[in-house]
Each structure stands twice: as structure tokens, then as C-alpha cells.
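We close this part of the discussion by returning to an individual protein. The sequence in question and its C-alpha cells are set out directly beneath this paragraph:
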Amino acid sequence: MPGVPRGLAEHRLQVDPKVKPVKEHLRRSAVQKRKAIGEEVARLLAAEFIREIYHSEWLANVVMVPKKDDSLRMCIDFKHINLACPKDHFPLPHIDQIVDSTAGCERLSFLDAYFGYHQIRLYGPDEIKTAFITPFGCFCYVTMPFGLKNARATFMRMIQKCLLTQISRNVEAYMDDIVVKSRKGSDLLADLAETFANLRRYDIKLSPSKSDAAFAELKALLSTQPVLAAPISKEPLLLYIAATGQVVSMMLNGSGAGVVLVSLRGEKLSYVLQIHFYSSNNEAEYEALLYGLRMAISLGVRRFMVYGDSDLVVNQVMKEWDVRSPAMTGYCNAVRNLEKKFEGLELHHIP
């Protein structure tokens, strides 16, 4: 894989010349791990991410880390070379700020860089310093590997240079994850075209497997009719409602609330309501409660248990507190009218 131009990004180790190099001895590996190491080395050689070497002052061992699917990932223990390198203080973005910046966008498109770190080449004289030992010989990296100190800073600097004119406007990026945000649905194609043009200009590759998987999921949704399970008779349905600041801040305009319907079998239906008028948290929670009640009625539910985070709404509906506000009176009466359609309705407060 060619990788990005060196003028855009090139990783340098900046090893302190006063630090004595460390050359580790080969660790023993079980048969299963040895096989996984051989397969990974062959893959890296074929992709031209590594090359074989014969003499090196630095030599690290491999560490096999189990993945979720019980397969093994080969990592290099660069602890000694990392201690000899100064820290690059390039600031990394805060994920919570990236999430907040996407609020109000009608369309979000998620992209994933293909072998992100390996798209950046190592500075030639530093390649030999990334040497590692395996049962099949010694090798060093030609491209920037995971685990090297300052690799994250180098990659983030490269992404920000590439998408400099788009960051914060219609793109956000955290390492190799890129989100294209379109304020209006009509801007989606133009935003994607601009992003792809910038990525293509610097020869940054995207992961095709993620796109194929997303397309397959979309195709399945479009070609398969939804299967609706009828509720079990006399089985209560649980409703969770919330109108917290976190939920409201995610809305496009006005206020919002969250609704989650849960059967005793664990089946869930989750919704986020967008309320097109400014309201208090209690009003938003009443809206969520009414929405949940109507959903339950349409599903044929007869017994209903509601859990909400508004002390006021729960106690007013359960007749523990008096309703004094005219606005709350209207909401409470609406709940009373829907309550008649259930054999049992209980509300509980969640602090």
C-alpha cells in the first residue's frame, strides 16, 4: 500500500542518543500463538508494512492479545524504545465535544480509515529501531505501527492537515474515525464529495469492509419485512421515560425526551422524542409518558408499569401530589383518559 505523501506525514522517533538500546531475547510461545504469529508476519510482509532485518541494536518481543472472537492480535512491546522518546504534545480532540458538535445535524456519515496508522511511513533511519523478534526471524516496520509513542499524535496531525478546511464545519475526526456532518439533508452529497476529494488528494484510504457491512445491513432492512411479536396476555410492559439535560441537548430544535418500552422477556423499543416547542423537563416527561401510553395501547398491552425520573409527574399521576399548574392539569387529565384503557397502570420514580 503506497501510503500518504511524506510531505503530509512521516513518523520520527527522536530517540534520545544518551539512552542505551535494549535487545530482548525471544520469548517462548505456545503452538496456537506461534501459528498466529506466523500468519500475521506473512500478512504484514505481503502488505509491505514490515521488512526482514539481520542486525539491530533495538529488539522488542511480540505480545499476543486475545480479541472478542477468541482470535489473537499480534502487538509489539515497544516499552523500552518508548521510554527513550520525548512526548509529542499535539492535542487530541475530546470525544464529548465531538459528539456535542454533531447535535442538530440531519445527516451523519461515518467513515473509517483503512489500516489507519500503516498509511503513514516511518522516517527511514528510524525503521531499524522498531525491530522485533519472532520464532520466524527478526523484522522491523516500514510504516507506523500501533504501540509506538506519539503515533496517535502523528496520525491526528495528519488527519487535521488533510481535512483542515472542513474540521468543525462539516467534518469531525478522532484518530481513524471520521464523521461527515450535514446540517441539512440536502447538503449530504456535497459534504461527502468535499470529504472524499480531500482524502483522495492525500491518498488516504477508507475501509471497504465497513462500507460493505453497512450496505448489507441496509439492504437487509429494505428487503425484509419487520416481524412484530404480539404481547403475551396479562404480561405487564415496562416503560422508562426521561427528560434529562443530556437527552434534551441532543434534540434538533426545542426540547426532547427519551422513551424505552421493555417487556418482561427483555424485548426493547427505544425512541427519542423531538418536541417542537420549548418546554420544561416536567412537560417533556409528560409528553414522553403520553407517547408511551399510546404506543402500549396500539400494541394491545393491558398492564403497564412506568419508571420516570420526574418526581413531580410520577406523584401527580399517582395522586400523591396536587396538580396546581394549569399546564400540568391538562397533561394529567390526558393521562387519566388513557389510563382507563388499561387494567393496571403503575408509576414509579427513579432518582
Notes: Residues 32 and 72 are 9 Å apart (CA to CA). The two ends are 54 Å apart (CA to CA).
